[in-house]
């Protein structure tokens, strides 16, 4: 049995032993893509009857961590909608790209089709207020990053992270693409815009390795230029808006 088959069997054993009433389950993450390591966790989406409760659980099963996304059938549409609003599509991608573990009633297949349609439609566009706010924040972070002195490494690294995160938010939104956090931030970024995405990531690396903020600031300004340029004077935000 190869590693992926072993992990699939392990995940199925977890579901049948811990959630015998489950209506279906899907294995996602690195285990589903055949890229799991000895320390990779199991990402599993589990469909439950409406008599149960939607929740997220992290457990250890046979020595391996498992992160479980448990949703009732009635709650799943709202979960998908919330995933869309957050623009990351975490659960949507789990259903779309995961390996079905069990699907006796076809619920997983239908959820997979719904997830695939929502992912193809893309995340909702930013509102004019959200565009303005994001442009202003990126401009502020970029300006502060340029102003840091070589000795201010803590501030420089923090500002580099904020600049990258805000630039990714804007650039993926500009392309109508999904974004991500953690390891999925560079993956989604490079998928949305390989050239500008690489410039941002290389610039972030230059700050981390060499204390040089100029490449990241230049890459961030390229993103801003797509959207009307840096936003400083003239920005207005209504409190509570």
Please characterize this protein's 3D structure.
The structure is a single chain. With 241 residues, the protein is α+β, with helices and mostly antiparallel strands. Helices cover 56% and strands 13% of the residues. A five-stranded mixed β-sheet has the order 3-4-2-1-5, sandwiched between helices. β3 (55-61) and β4 form a beta hairpin. The termini are far apart. The model has no long low-confidence stretch (mean pLDDT 95).
Mean pLDDT: 95
State the low-pLDDT regions, or none. none
- The side-by-side strand order for the widest beta sheet comes to 3-4-2-1-5
The H-level CATH homologous superfamily of the largest domain, spelled out, is Beta Polymerase, domain 2
Number of strands: 5
Query: What structural category do the secondary elements indicate?
Result: alpha+beta
Query: Can you summarize the main beta sheet?
Result: 5 strands, mixed
> Roughly what fraction of the amino acids lie in strands?
5-15%
Q: Radius of gyration in whole Å, from Cα?
A: 21 Å
What order do the helices and strands come in, and which of them pair?
Layout: H1 3-18, E1 24-28, H2 29-33, E2 42-48, E3 55-61, E4 64-72, H3 76-85, H4 90-97, E5 99-102, H5 107-121, H6 128-147, H7 153-174, H8 184-192, H9 194-210, H10 214-226
Parallel strand pairs: 2-4
Antiparallel strand pairs: 1-2, 1-5, 3-4
């Amino acid at each position: 049995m190869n590693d992926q088959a072993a992990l699939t069997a392990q995940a199925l054993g977890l579901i049948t032993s811990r959630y015998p009433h489950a209506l279906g389950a899907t294995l996602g993450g690195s285990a589903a893509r055949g890229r799991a390591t000895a320390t990779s966790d199991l990402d599993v989406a589990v469909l439950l009857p409406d008599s149960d409760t939607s929740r997220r659980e992290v457990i250890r099963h046979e020595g391996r961590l498992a992160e479980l996304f448990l949703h009732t059938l009635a709650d799943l549409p709202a979960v998908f909608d919330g995933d869309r609003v957050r623009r990351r599509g975490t659960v949507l991608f789990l259903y779309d790209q995961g390996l079905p573990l069990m699907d006796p009633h076809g619920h997983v297949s239908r959820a997979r089709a719904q997830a695939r349609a929502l992912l193809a439609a893309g995340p909702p566009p930013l509102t004019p207020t959200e565009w303005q706010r994001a442009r202003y924040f990126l401009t502020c972070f970029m300006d502060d990053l340029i102003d840091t002195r070589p000795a201010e490494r803590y501030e420089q690294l923090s500002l580099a992270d904020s600049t990258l995160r805000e630039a990714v938010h804007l650039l993926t939104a500009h392309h109508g693409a999904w974004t991500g956090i953690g390891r999925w931030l560079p993956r989604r970024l490079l998928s949305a815009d390989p050239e500008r995405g690489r410039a941002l990531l290389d610039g972030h690396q230059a700050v981390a390795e060499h204390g040089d903020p100029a490449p990241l600031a230049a890459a961030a300004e390229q993103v801003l230029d797509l959207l009307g340029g840096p936003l400083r004077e003239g920005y207005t935000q209504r409190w509570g808006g």
